[in-house]
Amino acid sequence: MAEILKGAPVAEALSEAIRNDVEELKAKGIIPTLAIVRVGERPDDLAYERGAMKRAAKVGVEVRNEVFPEDITQDDFFKELDRINNDDKIHGILMFQPLPKHISTAKAREMIVPAKDIDGCTALSMAGVFTNSQLGFPPCTAAAAMEILHYYGIDPKGKRAAVIGRSLVIGRPVGMMLMHENATVTNCHTRTVDVPSVTRNAEILIAAAGVLRSVTPEYVNPDQIVIDVGINWDEKKGGIAGDVDFDAVEPVVKAITPVPGGVGSVTSTILMQHVVEAAKRISE
Fold first, then answer.
1. Contact 134/77 with Cβ under 8 angstroms?
2. Which CATH number does the domain 140-264 belong to among 3.40.190.10, 1.10.1240.10, 3.90.1150.10, 3.40.50.720?
């Protein structure tokens, strides 16, 4: 039986540290504030927004909901985004994507000031991930995967790590973050020949392809740590499930994160950590 790497204790430990930082900032007259920028009423955006607001309330971060109608013009939206960028009382910006088709998501993304880009969506934030420097912040999901490794005492140093996926949201940044901690990393993708033969040789496996239960026992080995980043809707069983076939893989590997209850439960806490860190950087 594998060790189950649950996200809840990780999130709680992070939350305690965040609350302490928030109290210190508030003593200096600084209230860490997150602006949630939403255009329209997409159900998935609304669900994430509710979760983020709940997490913010637990750690003492203020939230401003910047909500705009779906038919707002691109020019008007860019003016509003510029206003939010230039508001000194806002320390972090979370902009839900994609935006409606008549608004350029790429242009809007690059308008966000890197110092306030707490979800790592700008090119400069990604440059910060690749250079291991404080240019913006890494994507929250990638940071959450790394935080789980840290919490459970799993040191990537010297280990072989395989990442399934090469997106800018998780695959590439988490691969680079593992490399910064001295792992030897292979990023697998849709053009990789014989993915299982690569992943079986890894001591750490990050599953981030976004394909329901695509990681089966042939992908893993008994000494492996599996971090499942996938969040997929299972139409047959109903509910959320990961990229890993948990029931089949869990008996084989050394440790594994569940879905739900793993990486996803840490992600919103990382978001708050980034808001507070942004406020600290500005105050310093």
1. no
2. 3.40.50.720
